[in-house]
Amino acid sequence: MLTTETKNEILAELAHSETNRMACIESLKIAQRQSGWVSDEELCEVAQLLGLTPDEVDGVATFYNLIRRRPVGRHVILLCASVSCWVMGYAALRAGLAQTLGVEPGQTTPDGRFTVLENQCLGACDHAPVLMIDNDLYRDVDAEKLGDILARYA
Amino acid sequence: MAEFNQQSDPDKRPLTAKVQPDGRPLSLKDCEKAGGYRAVRAMLGGMSPGDVTQRVKDSGLRGRGGAGFPTGSKWSFVPMGDNAPRPKYLVVNADEMEPGTFKDRLLLESDPHQLVEGVIIAAYAIQADIAYIFLRGEYVLAEERLKTALAELRAAGLVGKNILGSGCSLEVHLHTSAGRYICGEETALINALEGRRANPRSKPPFPQVCGLRGKPTIVNNVETLCNLPHILNNGADWFKGLSLTPNGGTKIYGASGKVRRPGLWELPMGTPAREILEEYAGGMRDGMKLRAIIPGGASTDFLLESQLDVPMDFDTVAQAGSRMGTGTMIVLDDQTCPVGMVHNLMRFFAHESCGWCTPCREGLPWVEKILAAMERGEGQPGDLEQLARHVTALGMGLTYCALAPGAMEPLGSGLKLFRDDFERHIRDKRCPWS
User: Is the domain of B314 the same as that of B343?
Assistant: First the structure.
């Protein structure tokens, strides 16, 4: 369920948007900040605030890579899977994550700490391979550095 | 944070002149001391919108998002005058999602004011009332810095109503995307801004006439807009003189892959690929040879080592059988599997197809599956013919937008240039590099 605070944030977004529909993606992103994903119930609440049908909003939500319609862990790891990172060691990094966390991309650790997702090019190709954890970008990452990086996230 | 190691040189490298060694952007006050917003002040003081468009036309500036369409000509399709539909929109394509491309990140993070100055100039030229900066969701540092810059500008009266008392107004909004490569296609981007699925629209009508909310809209790339203050300050001839070839200006080039010093460099337009890779990127790492490059993002044809003397500009790279695209080169070395590289690219395109038209939605995953099987050692006789059929069937004009034809550029050129490697995967029933 959306908190009053989240709803107010969406309403504030609507207030300076040209149309309600134009605030659809931003509203979903605001809703998602609560728990990292958007549940059916929350999606319906967003739709109601926007004056759109739940189907219209879900059509938008499921189109975009960064809107999640399934639960995620407390921290989301976006592993860059695009070409420069692929050349520079994406496979080893993916294997390192699997070994350290015991999960493949698309899965969440049993303790709910991390979800690993593959992401398209993160635009830091001069420091490939890269990954993002929540809003933090890590560059020139290799399997050895993973332990220290992951330890920063409880 | 983007890194940049060239010395500041406003005469030769205008786009990066204000990039600081620590990468932090200048405050509005310091930016103005360094010449920022001088072009906007001069423009509002005495140039007509037509003057601005003419100067940009004269400069020969071409779109830096990859397609290279002349910027001034693009603007000239916008209806002008008192009877033009309102509001008109200027949209910044800051959705840098072309794999291997990281040039706009530098411009956005280290000099957001330069971009906004370009926005104000472009908006004035087409008499836009509202501007949107459409930014990649993953570029969180750029978002923070753009927000700061816009707040400074609102407080100083440089954006908003009646800019500097000129009677011109421009609202500038920042939209952060939720991630989809197709948003780089300008009509898809417009749908995304409208809060819809980012499927491309049918053209015509073109956005210049009927874009965002059905109103005249110009979509320009970040690097394109960043050039505008310098063209206004220094003139069209100066801009042309920066370039080694008739495609004017400088270009932010980049290199990634197994070169010694991957990075970004602002260089004269038309600098040969070999010079960029050897002098600036430091050549290949020890024990490695360069086999080919993708010159400007995932959707450009491979060029072989023997073709590297090509000047990197729009026209010359096209004559060599590829495209300059975004100018950020991805290097294929002799110890990396070309089939695997093409597979990685096709996996990207298959995932990012918006699903609207059948050839793209069905064809790209088919191609991806064939290549995945080949990499696993399960390639079949006839696979190469099947892939070649896709290159033809997903070509320009046969799909709704340029996504699938773009995807076919590295596939088609890969099939030609690395034929032996593809055949060997099928014949030996394994990837020779794994």
Answer: no
A66 close contact with B: CB closer than 8 A: yes
Q: How far apart are CA B215 and CA B232, in angstroms?
A: 27
Q: What is the CATH number of domain A75-151?
A: 3.40.30.10
Q: pLDDT tens across B318-337, in order?
A: 999 999 999 999 999 999 99
What are the structure tokens assigned to A112, written together?
């709910």
Residues B356 and B231 in one domain: no
* A125·B256 Cβ contact <8 A: yes
Q: What is the mean pLDDT of residues B232-237?
A: 98
Whether B158 and B45 share a structural domain: yes
CATH class label, A4-63? mainly alpha
Query: How many structural domains compose chain B?
Result: 3
Q: In terms of residue numbers, what domain contains B118?
A: 21-240
CB B304 within 8 A of CB B351: no
Q: Whose structure tokens read 């060599």?
A: B320
The structure tokens 């290199």 sit at B255
| CA of B38 vs chain A CAs: smallest distance (Å) | 30
Q: Do B330 and A121 touch (CB under 8 A)?
A: no
Q: What ipTM goes with this model?
A: 0.97
Indicate whether B11 belongs to any domain.
no
Q: Integer distance in angstroms from the first to the last C-alpha of chain B?
A: 33
Query: Could you read off the pLDDT of B53-106 as tens digits, one per residue?
Result: 999 999 999 999 999 999 999 999 999 999 999 999 999 999 999 999 999 999
- Identify residue B213 by its one-letter amino acid code: R
Provide the whole-model pTM. 0.97
3-state secondary structure of A10: helix
Q: Which of residues 69-128 of A touch B (CB under 8 A)?
A: 78, 81-84, 86-88, 119-128
Where in chain A are the domains?
4-63, 75-151
